[in-house]
Amino acid sequence: MAHALALGRRGMGHVWPNPAVGCVIVSRGRIVGRGWTQPGGRPHAETEALAQAGTAARNATAYVTLEPCAHHGKTPPCAEALIAAGVARVVAPLEDSDPRVAGQGFALLRAAGVEVTNGVMAAEAQADHAGFFLRVEQGRPFVTLKLALSLDGRIATASGESRWITGPEARRVVHGLRARHDAVMVGGGTARADDPALTVRGFGTVSQPVRVVVSRLLDLPLMGQLARTAQEVPVWICHGPDVSTELRDAWQGLGARLFSCALAGGRLAPQSVLHALGEAGLTRVLCEGGGQLAASLLAEDLVDELQVFSAGVVLGAEGVPGIGALGIGALSEAPRLALAEQRGVGNDMYSIWRRN
Question: From which residue to which does the signal peptide run (predicted)?
Fold first, then answer.
């Protein structure tokens, strides 16, 4: 199962709105087939593994990282494919919460005489499929908030200079993070100040994540990197209901996809933004700031994982804080997370924090 989970992770960032599933088929102690969900969500992991196994799948055991699908979509159900191949046993960690499956895949297998074992490495599979489950159950993607900070929590100097606070090793890790998410998201202030590309670089030719900008007024540079490359790499912009027709037409003309979102307290409501992205199919979003967007997500308890790169530099109180105002008056009101991992990356410290 550990091997199947590792295979499934190869699909992260490339298979939305489907889950990134892995499958290993074992016969007489030997792996005869391996597969993972392919880019765009098809073919499924089981189909890939069965094709590789061929007739060796008969009487074999299939290790699958999520309940095999039971519904007819663009392809026939994987549960039926496993039955037709003569697989004797299916081991899976979790039931699929998608109402089109929700136990029906396991039921089909058992009805056909296939032995089903579930619960194996369930916690690991739950973590890998968290974004898929959140989209199905809550209508929003999994949110990873990434911060690159000075020792005193700043993301830029008072003049706005921010390149580079962290070193090249940390930046390479960030590009790897981008590659494993469906989308990279920033606020309008960051898009205006930094003119970012938000692409994966340094990993050869890879499928690029969707680039999302949260900008209430849609007042973004029409000659910036995002605008110039919107035809090549998708640009999605979440904006308020009161943007000008001229700006809307301009961005759509450049190839951007626009989402009108609700307001809360004069700002874009983060729940509305994430639900729009979830409805569009995204399951995993990497938010790279800025401070106000980070604060709004934290305030609404919408950050599922916080990844922090801390550099050995001090910028002082006049620097730009990594997280905007939260309006916290007491420690009991502050968001608290649990440290999951910490290690050095080059000259920087890298830590991962999750909900308690």
Answer: none
